[in-house]
Amino acid sequence: MTSNVTYCIRVLTGNRKGSGTWDLDAEISLTIIGTKGQTKPLVLEKLFYNAFWAAYKDKYVMEAEDVGEILMIKVKNDQSGFFHYSSVDLFLDEVSINYESDDNKVYEFPCFCWVQTESVFFEGKAKLVTDEQDDEVRNQRQLEVKQRQEIYQWGDDPDYRGLPGFIKSGGAKTLPKEVQFTQDDANELFQATSKGILNALLVKFRGLFHSWEEFDDFRKAFVHFVGDVPLAAEHWKEDSFYGAQFLNGCNPDTIKRCTELPSKFPVTQEMVGNLLDAGETLQQAMKNGRVYLVDYEILFDIPHYGTLNSKLERRYTCPALGLFLRQEQWGHCANSHSAPTKTDQSKPNLDSKRH
């Protein structure tokens, strides 16, 4: 017969619109699954108390079967409640569990998704499929993959053949809630669009009466009409910030580690020697994995149009090349950043630099 133990369960709900349940009678249960088996569903409730407000952390001390090493948890939302007309969907950020007899060992389960009916969460350890895993975990992961393959399928509409792939669905509302475009997303997009339009109008309006003498003129006008300038406006001239945009920007997969310079980008030791460590060569830096390359060759010969003297003019996109060096501070990588060493704005031009 399995002995009982006491679990300390901490639940953190998300801080987004509709994250918590407003219904005092909504039933949320949790099943703990481990190497020795699983517990019965543990109903997370307190008398006359709604434990699932948005952005709220609560603790439950509950007695249940000893499951040994905890592998995963199952959270169930029965969608019940006194106010049936209201949504009782729950957005979980994190669940953590420990045995009351051992505060040092805490099992953490990152969630960050909506629980509309039933969801399974694994402990937040980074593991590959090839790593040794319990059969229970492996089977659940395989089931999860099959379920996602059923939910996310490629569209097959013949009217869109030849165009980029798209998700097959009956509309945005039929997709899982965590991938839907939320009201918060819409508000953020509206605010960004509004600032962009105001930004453009501001440039045209002031240009009717004054000429822009320097970049700081625009900053003053922006602050007066729009508000605080974004972070990029304060640091856009810094090489480390410029390099960070390639690592964390909208298309970070364009930057790749460079082990050998391409023939179309003949950078020499003399060009970048002042950026390297004392006594280090460019070849050594590449061998040590500190050099990265951005190649926008895909943009070669792509036309676009602009106006010159009120006439439409055909131009071509610049297939730029950029070489970046990872600079490490204080002897460890935690504070490393990327800085550009050399850029090529069109064809190989050994004298071109970023401005």
From TrEMBL:
<feature type="compositionally biased region" description="Polar residues">
    <location>
        <begin position="335"/>
        <end position="349"/>
    </location>
</feature>
<dbReference type="Pfam" id="PF01477">
    <property type="entry name" value="PLAT"/>
</dbReference>
<feature type="domain" description="PLAT">
    <location>
        <begin position="5"/>
        <end position="129"/>
    </location>
</feature>
<dbReference type="InterPro" id="IPR036226">
    <property type="entry name" value="LipOase_C_sf"/>
</dbReference>
<keyword id="KW-0479">Metal-binding</keyword>
<feature type="region of interest" description="Disordered">
    <location>
        <begin position="335"/>
        <end position="355"/>
    </location>
</feature>
<dbReference type="GO" id="GO:0004051">
    <property type="term" value="F:arachidonate 5-lipoxygenase activity"/>
</dbReference>
<keyword id="KW-0443">Lipid metabolism</keyword>
<keyword id="KW-0560">Oxidoreductase</keyword>
<dbReference type="GO" id="GO:0046872">
    <property type="term" value="F:metal ion binding"/>
</dbReference>
<keyword id="KW-0223">Dioxygenase</keyword>
<dbReference type="InterPro" id="IPR013819">
    <property type="entry name" value="LipOase_C"/>
</dbReference>
<protein>
    <submittedName>
        <fullName>Arachidonate 5-lipoxygenase</fullName>
        <ecNumber>1.13.11.34</ecNumber>
    </submittedName>
</protein>
<feature type="domain" description="Lipoxygenase">
    <location>
        <begin position="127"/>
        <end position="355"/>
    </location>
</feature>
<dbReference type="GO" id="GO:0034440">
    <property type="term" value="P:lipid oxidation"/>
</dbReference>
<dbReference type="InterPro" id="IPR000907">
    <property type="entry name" value="LipOase"/>
</dbReference>
<dbReference type="InterPro" id="IPR036392">
    <property type="entry name" value="PLAT/LH2_dom_sf"/>
</dbReference>
<dbReference type="InterPro" id="IPR001024">
    <property type="entry name" value="PLAT/LH2_dom"/>
</dbReference>
